[in-house]
Request: fold
Amino acid sequence: MCVLTDKMDKGWITLIIVTLSIFTIVIDKTFMNVAISSLIHDLHTTIGTVQIIIATYSLTMASLMLVGGRIQNILGRKRTFLTGASIYGVGTIVAALSINSTMLLLGWSIMEGVGAALMMPATTSIISGTYEGEKRAFALGITSSMASGAGTVGPIIGGFLTTFYSWRYAFGLELIVIMVIIIFSGEISVFPPDMDWSQLNIVGAVNSTVGIFLFVLGILVLNNPNNWLLSFILISFGILLLIIFYLNQRSRINKNQTPLVDVTLFKYMGFTLANITRFIMNFTIGGVLFIIPVYVQSDLGANPLTTGLTLIPMSVAIFVMSSMAGKLSKIIQPRYILAIGALAAISGSVYLTLIFNPYTTIVDMVPGIFMLGVGMGIVFPHSANEIFFAAKKEQQPDASGIMNTGINLGSSLGTAILGLILILGGFSSVGLAANTGQSTGVQDNILGVHELVGKFEHQSYPTEKNIPVDIQKVNTMKTAFNLITIVLLVSLIISLFIPRHKTKKEQGGCVSSNI
Reply:
């Protein structure tokens, strides 16, 4: 880790503001997954609808990330960042006050997704433009650690608030953070724009945004067999628009016109393969953060806080392994580091496939969940290093946009596809709606803690009195983790084809690990 030797001064307020935004956005991707049962109960909806809401949040970011990155060249970094923060803040209000699933979809998935798509690209460029040398390295290290840390505490915060108060309080907490960001935003430096609206590649923006959105939406609507024809049409049009987008970008580059993103980066094998391995790992984490909460709440009777604690081993493993990334990168080739990460994740996935049975407990799942986190914690920072290693200095903003698009697209697809397996495999809102775990008073909260401890004790030591889980649902979980194992095997094979190169000791252990 990089160590700061300079005295903190007023200039670090910018880092604090940017770090808060990253913390909020990452938490937003994790805390609602543990509140699935409460969302179904409070909004009178179904697992399928909640799956769409969760996937659409990442999908909205994935669809607009490239556009968000380019808009900062037109509006300026600070103005783009604050515009995103304002939209995000309004979204938290709408989400917190939601009376039905449509309102939550609008506030959280759409408005907060749009705000995050504008904020995220600007955070890196603001830091890069504000700090230099060791200070920049320190700042990037802090943002990376904060992203990992947010993923660790997100399930706990979401689980605690949902169990003892309401999931609505989580959005209220986010609103407070956004207000702090806006209040202290005067400390952010102003970076003049270097483009005007006439230079924006409108065709590329529309094709990329609509193409990604239609592709994932087509997968989401597969959860109803009556929509399979519609799904085929949506997926086909999405792929067609993405092909047109790529050809349009190549054409603009050949004509010396400003593209939405520099797609020539994909000609570098290291860049392309590292993005694929990172995409697969985000596919995995997106799916796991959906299917594990559904299983432990619907079939093991866990409340949201217990669910959040169930995911902690994975989050802690990601945080710890990400912090060790700098040491590994100095002695091992990136291709082998990514392969080791894939193997670790595969071991966790295979373990979970083998241990699932009608009497599987939460404690039984912990080793597999932990090993998945170890693999993710290895792959996330080192894949990012490889991506930026392949990009020239002037291409790094485009590399960041492509990487962040892949992060959110992978997460969205993981939720969509693995969630689809669960829904088609017999999981429904029955059983989830009753496990809200919410309390109404102080004494109920105290009882809730005792119940939580008792639940872990009960689930740790199965007895003949335990009610077995439906075998169909057990087989469905096995199928989901079999799919995860297959895609992780693809990641393992792909990582071994990443070109060899000298490790970058001058990085001093500061790596990007945006999750």
Summary: Residues 133-164 form the longest helix (32 residues). Confidence is low (pLDDT under 50) at residues 1-10, 433-465, 503-515.
